[in-house]
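Quick sanity check, Putative glutathione S-transferase:
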Amino acid sequence: MLVSGKWVENWQPVQNADEHGRFLRQVSSFRNWITPDGRAGPTGTGGFKAEAGRYRLYVALICPWASRTLIARKLKRLEDILPITVVNPTLTDQGWSFGGYPGADDDPLFGASYMHQVYTQADPNFTGRATVPVLWDMKQNVMVNNESADILRMLDTAFEGLVPSDLRLYPDDLADQIDTLNAPIYDKLNNGVYRAGFASSQEAYDEAITGIFDTLDMLESLLQGDYLFGDRLTETDIRVFVTLIRFDAAYHGLFKTNRLRIADYPKLSAYMERILNLPGVIDTVNMDHITHGYYSIKALNPLGIRPTGTWAYRKAAGRSAGGVKGQWFIVGDTNEG
Ligand SMILES: N[C@@H](CCC(=O)N[C@@H](CS)C(=O)NCC(=O)O)C(=O)O
C-alpha cells in the first residue's frame, strides 16, 4: 500500500483484520461525481461536467467492484465516450500493474507501471491501497472517484444528455428498496466472499460463510420475475451478478465458499445467465483474468496453481454447442472440454 505517497511492499489483504480476524475493506477516498452540468453530486466537490472523451475508467477484469462500473458503462452504451484502461489480472508486490498480459493495457496517461503511480499523480501524499476502479478526469488531470458504488450510480444519469437511454438502474420509485436490499448484499455476499477468503480465524470464516449462504438462499427465494425487482433490471442485479459469475470459478475453491455452488441454485443460475446475455455484458466477463487473478493471490495460493474445473468453467463462458443458439451459458464445473 502507499504510505504518504511511498509504496510499502508485501502488504497482504489478510493483514487488514479486526481483533476477531475479520477482513476489513478500506473506505474509498476520492468521492466526486460527474454530473450533467458540473454541479457537485451527493459527495465531494463540483467541476466534473459530463463531456465525451473527458474521463477514463481504470479497471481490473478480475475485480467485481470494477466490473460493476464496466457493466453500467456497457448497458448505458457509454463505450464511445468513456474509454477504459484494464490492468493486469495479478496483484503484484506493488499492487496492480499495467501491460503485458493478454487483454490488459498499458497506461496511456502517465506510462505508469503500477496503479499506485496513478494514485500519487492524484495525491503525492496518498496513504492507502491503490484500488480499482478509478475514474480519472483527463482535462483537469485529477481523480474524480474511486468508489464503485458511486461510479455505478453516476453512470446511470450523468451522461443522459449525451447518450440518452431508457434504462434506469436506480429509478426513483425503487430507490429505497434498492438501498435496503443493497446493504445486506454488499455486506454478506459481495464483501462476504472476501471475508471468508481473507478470514484469519475460524470464527470469522464461519460467520462469513453463514452470511453468504443465507443471502444466496434469500435471493433464490426472492427471485420471482427475471430480475430482483420483477421485470426491471436495476443496479442491485449488477451488484449480485458480479459476485455470482466469479463464485463457482474462483470463490468456491480459493475463498473456501464451498458449501454449495451457484450451479446448485436453479433460479440464481438462470438469472446469472440472463444477465450474462444482456447486450455487451459478456465483454465485461473475462474468465481467464478472473481465474488467473484470484488463483495468483499469494497469501491464499502461494504456488499459483489453478484447479482444472475453473478452466472448464472459463470455456463454458464462451460460445459453445449447448443451450440456446447464440446465447452464452455456463456449464458448471465439469472437467470436460
Ligand atoms: N470500495 C472500493 C473497493 C475496491 C477494491 O477493493 N478493489 C480491489 C480489487 S477487487 C483492489 O483494487 N485491491 C487492490 C489492493 O488490495 O491493493 C470500490 O468498491 O470501488
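Posting the structure with no commentary besides this: The mean pLDDT is 91.
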